[in-house]
Write a structure and sequence with these properties.
Elements lengths: L1 H8 L38 H13 L9 E7 L2 E7 L5 H13 L9 E3 L3 E4 L34 E4 L12 E4 L12 E7 L1 H8 L4 H8 L12 E6 L2 E6 L6 H11 L12 E8 L8
Helix pairs in contact: 2-3
Length: 287
Amino acid sequence: MLLVFIFTSFLVSDSLNYYNPLLNKKGLKINANLKGNFFPSLPSEISPVEIDLIKSKAREFIPEPVGVDNIIVMETNFGLMKFEIYAESAPKHAYNFKKLANSGFYDETIFHRIIPGFMAQGGDILTRDSNRDNDGRGNPGWTVDEEFNNISHERGILSMARSQDVNSAGSQFFICFDNANHLNNKYTVFGKLLSGYDVLDKIEKLKSESSYIINKSLDKVPDNANNQYLEFKHQNRKRYIKIPINENKNKFKDDVTKGLKNIHRTKKPVKIIKVRVNNENIEENSK
């Protein structure tokens, strides 16, 4: 029962993400010396005003009803994934996803939480602003009531994230890496991967910011290294990592400390370039 609670708690979404202490971790600031070495390059950042405009556009956008021949086409920086959409089993969620996707709401957002062996979570518009501390708390400005069904959470399943309130789904969703039966009838399944399992595998294998820092650190300072290395503790053991040239030691220490907390944010962000819900016979997605 405890294991189920721990796993399920990762799937909260929108403004209530602070219920999970692991979700309230701080992000890393990018600087020229570290970019490409330890810390990820972020998607182009946009202002709160621009985010509000995207949300307003999504709210006013009225898509065609989800057809039986509709599929989800998701273009990421790791490749293309296509999903079947379960309009009969979860009609409100299917329509909501089409509304958000085809309005452009999801474009340029990132998967802010990736847990190997479990799931990848995305769909938060706040991953596009400059504040990494609020990632996982975004929403479109409305919610969708639950549509729990008998479809099992297994590899490739597309399901909706929510907070402790079962009727709080908004825009955040997750894709299962493996079977997660403890989520059945607790989260709304509304699709499944048709093609792109190789892309899903690539995403699952990405290193977190924390693991990347640990892999780049040493358990002993090299001879004659002087003050070129920063000492930090990991699992009650001392580790050492080289300080980039021209980097302030205190600033670098702060960034490393924050990075070690990011156990589910990948070193290289997984960005949704574009996602649309269209007729499966349409080869080129509409913009």
